Amino acid sequence: MGARKRLMAERIKEEKKSLAFAKLNKCPIPARKMRLVADLIRGEEVAKSLIILKHNPKDASGYLETLLLSAVANWQTKNDGQEPDNLFIKEITVGPGPTLKRIKPAPQGRAHRIRKRSNHVTILVDTL
Length: 128
Prior knowledge:
The protein is α+β, with helices and mostly antiparallel strands. The chain has helices at about 5-15, 30-40, 45-55, 60-80; strands spanning about 20-25, 85-95, 100-105, 110-115, 120-125. It is built from four helices and five strands, in the order αβαααββββ. The longest helix has 19 residues, at about 60-80.
């Protein structure tokens, strides 16, 4: 590896040291409903967003709360068990996941298709 490439790799590694992420795949809630809750906490501090998620009545908030706690735990592991004093959510992305297709009986011998949608969520946590 050349000197310039090695220096660039070391710089990128140092930048990523303060970042920690957590992923949730195949969550059984449609991505559209998950985005409503994710938009509430995007860019907020971790302590404030945990309070928002705890008092939000939507089902998606429970999944996001456990995912956020996992991201904070990943950050602590990466930084030798330091206490997270000023963490914030740098990025949160919600994308569509696989769709389960089911058939529901309809009148006169017909059938209607039911789509059970899911999503993938990624949270990036960083220090201020």
